[in-house]
Amino acid sequence: MKIILGFIKYHINHLVRQLFWVLKLSQSNIGKDVSIQFPVIREGNGTFSLGDKSKLEKRTNIGVGNKAILDVGKDALFEEASTILVNKNHSLKIGDQFKLGAHARLYVNSDWSFGSAVKIETHCAIFARESGYVGKLIIGDHSHIGDFTIIDLVNDVVIGSDVAIGPNCTLYTHDHEYKDKNVAAWKGGIVSKPIQIENGAWIGSNVTILPGVVIGERAVIAAGSVVTKSVEAETIVGGIPAKLIKRIV
Questions:
Q1: 176 carries an active-site annotation
Q2: Cis, bond preceding 194 (omega within 30 deg of 0)
Q3: What was the pLDDT predicted at 159?
Q4: Cis peptide bond upstream of 241, omega within 30
Q5: CA-to-CA distance for 231 and 209, rounded, in angstroms?
Q6: Fold classified for 1-122
Q7: Among 3.30.479.20, 3.30.110.40, 3.30.565.10, 2.160.10.10, what is the CATH number of 124-249?
Q8: Structure pTM?
Q9: Which of the residue ranges 94-98, 181-185, 206-210, 218-222 would you say has the lowest mean pLDDT?
Q10: Average of pLDDT values for 172-195?
Q11: Among 51, 62, 80, which residue's Cα sits nearest to residue 22?
Q12: Average pLDDT over all residues of the chain
C-alpha cells in the first residue's frame, strides 16, 4: 500500500507542477502562431517574451528570475530539453531566427545580447565555470556555434557577426595561479581575461581558445588548434600552440 500511495503522490505532484508551468506560460508574452510541445518548463517571476512563429519543443526549460528579462524575437526554435536560465535582475535579448539546440544550456548571470539568426547547436554549455563570476556574452548577427562547444564566462566573451565556431570547441576566460606548492594547481586563485572573436572569423572543430585572445576579422583557426595568443585578421593559424600558416591574400 505504501508503494501505491507513493506512486499516486508522485503523479499528483507531477501533474500540479505541469499545470503550474502552463499557468506561467500563459502569463508570458507569447506571440502568434507559436508551437509548444508540452511539457515545457517555465519557472521564475521575470518577464519572458517570445516572438511570432516560434517553437518550443518538449522539455524546453525557461527560467527567468525576479526582475529579469528574456526577450526572444520571432521564428525562434528551442529544441528538446534546451535550457535558458536568466538570473534575477539580468537580461538576455535575442533577435529573430534564433536556434538553441537540444540539451544546450545557457545560464545568464549578467546582461547578454544576441543578434539575428544566431544558432547554438546541441549540447553546448555556456556559463561561468567558477561560481561568483558574471561574464557577459555578446553575439552578432548570423553567427553559429557548433555542437558540444563550451564557452566559459568567468570573464566577457564577444563574438562578432558571421562567425562560425565548429563543434567541440572550448573558449576559456580563466586560469588559476599555481605557484603556491601548498595548494593543488587547479585550486589556486583565479586569473581571468576576456575573449573576442571578430566578424567573419572561422574557428575549426576541437579548437581551444585561452584567456585574453583576440581573433581578428576573417581569421581561420585550423581544427584541433590551441590558441594561446591573439591572431591577426585575414590569417590562417594552426597547431599546438597555434602559429601562422599563411596570410589570406
A1: yes
A2: no
A3: 99
A4: yes
A5: 11
A6: UDP N-Acetylglucosamine Acyltransferase; domain 1 (2.160.10)
A7: 2.160.10.10
A8: 0.94
A9: 181-185
A10: 90
A11: 62
A12: 96
Cell numbers placing 186? 587547479
Catalytic pick from 90, 123, 174, 176? 176
ω into 167 cis (within 30 of 0): no
Where do the structural domains in the chain lie, given as residue ranges? 1-122, 124-249
pLDDT, tens digit (0-9, with 9 covering 90-100), for 166-179: 999 999 999 988 88
Q: What is the pLDDT of residue 216?
A: 99
Cell numbers at 191, concatenated: 586569473
Q: Do domains 1-122 and 124-249 have the same CATH topology?
A: yes
Biggest CA–CA distance in the chain, Å, is: 77
> What are the helix (H) ranges across the chain?
2-26
For 226, counting Cβ atoms within 10 Å of its Cβ (0-12 exposed, 13-18 middle, 19+ buried), the class is middle
Q: Which amino acid is at 131?
A: S
What is the pLDDT averaged over residues 21-33?
A: 95
Residue-wise pLDDT for 207-243, tens only, equals 999 999 999 999 999 999 999 999 999 999 999 999 9
Whether residue 84 contacts residue 61, with contact meaning beta carbons closer than 8 Å, is answered with yes
